[in-house]
Amino acid sequence: MNIRIPFKIDISKNSFFAVIAFLLFGLIPLTSQKLEAVFVAIFIFLLIVQNFFNVNEEKKEVKFYTINTLLFLVLLFTFFDGFDYLAYKKLEQLVSLLIFPIIFYLLSNQKRNEVNKLFKIWQYTFLGSTLLLVFVVYYLVYNYSNPRYPNFDSNLFKAALSDSSFFSRDPAYISMFMNVAILICLDFLNKASKKINKVYLFLIIIFLLIPIFLFSSKIAILGLVTCSIIYIIISFKKERLPIIISLCLLFFTTIFLLPSKLNRFTDLFSNNILKRNVEYNSTFVHKETIKCSYDIFKSNFLFGVGLENTNTSVNNCVRKTFTYNEGVIYNPHNQYLGFALHSGILALLIFIYVIYNGLRLSYKNNKFLFLTVVYFCVFFFTENVLERQSGLVLFCFLFNTIPLIKSK
């Protein structure tokens, strides 16, 4: 007896709990930040239960998952200076870095064909959830009113989302969901045989691109452009150069034609954008946080400043030049420097090696997963992705599926 999913994926009845788990994880874009933790807990529980029904027919992936656990274990260096409750709470937030490799190690004894089907279920569910999220975003913006944001611009879009009691998230992370959904569409596009299906996928991509540009999260857009260029390089042999040139022309044309109030990219072409110390210049703030993080790392090269002290150290440094928004505590805004500050040079080297290992294996196994890792690599340059629940759980899920998912 098989379980038949509506989009024609037959799954063995022995995989029932895994099917529910992957369906549930695909709904993450429609959850609140608080509900994310609940969904992740249920996902983990269901996969543990599923492990009792798995038949040991596949060789378990030991090396890859052992290496991945080092991302969490190296952070334990923060206790060299003594046990601290704040450090414990920070480690608790990052425990997915340890749990996901263990859970997927248990899943690795399931038939690879079954896991591929489970992953496809997740792709369809995640794409559908993200499309619904776009409608939710438009609804929130349409009904939002705040005298601080009288103009229809990117600030209004951000505020409408941030002030939502349920869907409140940083727009960069909403853009992250949409970008991953676009990468799913590109994966489907590469496998689609019917022209009508390709047309539908192109329309979905355009539909997802609109709110991404309206949010104007620069690093999210740059990450998507980077992935698009790499996708063209690995998918096309003869026409890659004219397609890349056309894509770049389309990108820059869109940037320059969009009204300035809906387009924060034009700020990057301002001569003094990196020096303008004003309240709403996020580019200046990001530059200061990264500069401060690098300077602090140079002074604490071997062991960092400790997980519990990273944000305080960076914020104290930033506040010497940027005095606005006093209630905000700034983090390194760079995941590479974040690990370096948490536990020193060893943590940074382990982080880079883990990412390299994921890139190498995903390039062999599955180009969609390869592109998602590339996207996160770009995202890491200006965001502490792994220290926000939304970024952490999605990264851990996708990264730990790499050895289990192989393209035909």
TrEMBL record:
The keyword Lyase does not apply. It is a multi-pass membrane protein. The chain crosses the membrane at residues 12-31, 37-53, 65-87, 93-109, 121-141, 172-189, 201-234, 240-258, 336-356, 368-386. It is found in: Membrane. GO terms for molecular function: ligase activity. InterPro entries: O-antigen_ligase-rel_domated (IPR007016), WaaL-like (IPR051533). Residues 204-352 form the O-antigen ligase-related domain. Its main location: membrane. The keyword Ion transport does not apply. Coiled coil: none annotated. Keywords: Ligase, Membrane, Transmembrane, Transmembrane helix. This is O-antigen ligase family protein. It comes from Polaribacter marinivivus.
